[in-house]
Design a protein that fits this description.
Blueprint (H helix, E strand, L loop, with lengths): L3 H5 L3 H33 L14 H12 L4 H5 L10 H7 L6 H31 L4 H7 L7 H11 L9 H8 L7 E2 L2 E2 L9 H15 L5 H13 L1 H21 L11 H5 L1 H14 L14
Antiparallel strand pairs: 1-2
Length: 301
C-alpha cells in the first residue's frame, strides 16, 4: 500500500510545481468569472455580442468592446473590425452592437477589462515559471501528451500532482484509489450499494475530468468511443469520470514504462465484441424483412 505521507507530500520540486499549477488554475477560474461579468454587463446594456462571436475574449470582440467603452465609433464601424471568419457576420455584428451603454456600464466594463488584463499577466508569469520547473520532466510530459485529451497544461498538472516516480504506487489500482477516481465497490449479500468514488485528490480529479471532456470530442480514438459508449448508458457526467479514470491508468503506465500511448482505435469495442455485433445487426436487418448472407471479405479475413 502507498503510505499517506508519501502520496500527500512529494519531493520539493513537485510540491513547488503543484503550488504553481494550483495557483494558476485558481487565477484562470477568477479570470473566467471576470469574463462572465463582462458579458453580463454587456447584455445588461442590450449588447448581444456574445450571440454572434464564439469567444468574447477574442481579438475582434475585445477591439469592439474597447470602442464601445470609448464611444468613438458607430456600430457599423465597429462591425468592420471583425477579423477572420467573423468578416462574414458584419451585419449580425452591427445589430448586436446596437445597445444602450450608459456611463455606469462603461465604468464597470473598463474596470473589468483591467482586471482581466491583470489576470492574463499573472497567469503568463506563472506559466513561464512552470515551464522552467518542467524542464527536467519534458520527456514525461511529452509522453503524457500522446494520450488523447491531454495537452501541455494538463500534463503539467498531472505531473505536479502524482510526480514521475510510480514506484510509490504498487499498481494502477492504487493510484486510482489514492486519486479518488476509482469506482467504489460496496456489495453485501449480493446487493450492490453506492458505487461512488471515494474522496481523493480534488485537483487531480478535476484535471482528469477536463481531459476526459476533451477526449470525448475526438472521433477516431478509443477514449472517444469509450465516452460515447458509457454516456449512452450512464449519462455524460459518469462517463467523463470513467474516462478520467482510464486516462489516469494510461498516464501511470506511460510514465512507469517510459512508453507512449498506443491508440486502440474507435472501433475497438466493435472488434472486441465482433460476434455479438454481427448477431445484433443481422437480427435487426432480418426484422426489417431482408435475407442476410454473411461473407467475410479477403481484406478482413
Amino acid at each position: 500500500m502507498v503510505s499517506s505521507g508519501e502520496a500527500s507530500f512529494p519531493q520539493n520540486p513537485f510540491r513547488e510545481l503543484r503550488d504553481l499549477t494550483r495557483y494558476r488554475e485558481k487565477l484562470i477560474q477568477q479570470r473566467s468569472s471576470e469574463s462572465n461579468r463582462l458579458q453580463k454587463f454587456l447584455e445588461d446594456a442590450n449588447i448581444k455580442l456574445s450571440s454572434v462571436v464564439s469567444d468574447i475574449n477574442g481579438v475582434s470582440a475585445q477591439d469592439m468592446i474597447k470602442h464601445l467603452i470609448a464611444d468613438d465609433m458607430t456600430s457599423k464601424e465597429m462591425a468592420q473590425l471583425a477579423k477572420g471568419a467573423l468578416r462574414g457576420k458584419t451585419k449580425a455584428l452591427e445589430k448586436s452592437l446596437e445597445g444602450c451603454l450608459t456611463d455606469h456600464h462603461r465604468f464597470i466594463l473598463r474596470v473589468t477589462l483591467r482586471m482581466i488584463a491583470s489576470y492574463d499577466a499573472a497567469i503568463e508569469k506563472l506559466s513561464m515559471e512552470i515551464d522552467k520547473r518542467m524542464k527536467p520532466f519534458r520527456e514525461e510530459s511529452g509522453r503524457l501528451q500522446s494520450i488523447p485529451g491531454v495537452k501541455k497544461k494538463t500534463a503539467e498538472k498531472v505531473i505536479a500532482e502524482i510526480g514521475v516516480d510510480m514506484s510509490r504506487f504498487p499498481s494502477d489500482a492504487h493510484i486510482a484509489s489514492w486519486a479518488g477516481i476509482s469506482p467504489g465497490n460496496n456489495e453485501s449479500a449480493g446487493k450492490r450499494r453506492s458505487g461512488r468514488a471515494k474522496p481523493g485528490n480534488a485537483w487531480l480529479k478535476k484535471t482528469l475530468t477536463e481531459a476526459a471532456w476533451a477526449a470525448s470530442k475526438t472521433k477516431a480514438s478509443y477514449l472517444g468511443a469509450r465516452y460515447r459508449r458509457l454516456a449512452a448508458r450512464r449519462g455524460k457526467k459518469r462517463a467523463a469520470v470513467a474516462v478520467g479514470h482510464t486516462i489516469l491508468i494510461m498516464a501511470y503506465h506511460v510514465i512507469k514504462e517510459q512508453s507512449t500511448y498506443k491508440e486502440l482505435g474507435a472501433d475497438y469495442f466493435d472488434r472486441l465484441n465482433e460476434r455479438h455485433l454481427i448477431k445484433r445487426l443481422t437480427s435487426r436487418i432480418i426484422a426489417l424483412g431482408y435475407d442476410v448472407e454473411l461473407k467475410k471479405t479477403p481484406l478482413a479475413a
